[in-house]
Amino acid sequence: MNELPVLQESGASKPPNLSTEGNSNLPVSPSKIDDILGRACPQVQGSAENVSGIWSTFHTIYNAKIARALKKAFAKVTVQHEIKDGNGRLDIRLVTGYQNKVEIEKQPVAVIELKTGGLKLFQACEYAIRNKCPVILIELLSGDVHVIKLSAAYEIMAEAKNEIEDIQQIKEFGATIPGQDCKWCTKTCKDRIVQYAPYRVSANTFQDRACILKNNYPRAMEKLIAEINKIIRENESNFSTSLKNLSKSLISNTPQQFSFLTSF
Asked: CA-CA distance, 261 to 77, in Å (whole number)?
């Protein structure tokens, strides 16, 4: 019987490969990271999540609605909706070119990811790293809002690339880890121990979900706007501090730079 090859150990001996361009260089799209890391078996094929189109319908409607509401609430901020970001796609990105009435290079204020179903932690962290700004997750099923800051995103994603490479090594060897993943897997496999159970949407699921999202939307928007205001205030404070430090630096260096004038 063949034995599994020895995998390179993740950790300090193999540091995360994070580029200076704000990209963690993962070999997969951000939307797939959580699916890959959340499954024990590397051979899983298919996904129950894509069976019904009702989930994308909810997402499309509320994503557009949130974008319009944000433009109304933050008139001076550029609201970008459903935009391509490398091999991913952002739901909403807020970009500003003004800080304290001073025009500067346009910078992302926040990326907003709407979830009408489950959350995707690693996807959000990857977007934070790429855009060098916080990511705000809107969990519309509960009405909650979660903020992932850039520093936390780097820490969370530190081992993701190594883990995905380890999973690929196991997959190439042909090994399986049968169990719960078998339920969602469409692959013909001799090791299956759980019967495949394709996802089915019940007759009441659509209307029940629609009512839950509608009722949670106002509370989620209130929390979202509060978090964006907090981020904008922090950015303005940091920018103001940077200007003061720059001014002090210029003043302190001026005598040395222009001391030659005293000789005339």
From this structure: 46
Task: Please say if the pLDDT value at position 242 is more than 90.
Answer: no
Residue 20, in any domain of the structure = no
pLDDT per position as a tens digit, 124-178: 999 999 999 999 999 999 999 999 999 999 999 998 989 999 999 999 999 999 9
CA distance 59 to 55: 6
37 CB burial (10 A radius; 0-12, 13-18, 19+)? middle
- The arrangement of strands across the sheet holding 78-85 comes to 78-85, 88-99, 102-115, 135-139, 144-148
Backbone angles phi, psi at 228, to 5 degrees: -65, -45
Burial string for 161-195 (b: 16+ CB within 10 Å, else e) reads bbebbbbebbeeeeebebeebbebbeeebeebeee
Residue of 125, 96, 105, 123 lying closest to 234 (CA atoms): 96
User: What token pair was written down for 199?
Assistant: 């996802």
| CA-wise closest residue to 118 among 66, 59, 63, 167 | 59
- Which CATH number do you get for residue 88? 3.90.1570
Which residue range is the domain that position 216 belongs to? 30-42+52-174+202-234
pTM, two decimals, is 0.77
Residue 219 in domain: yes
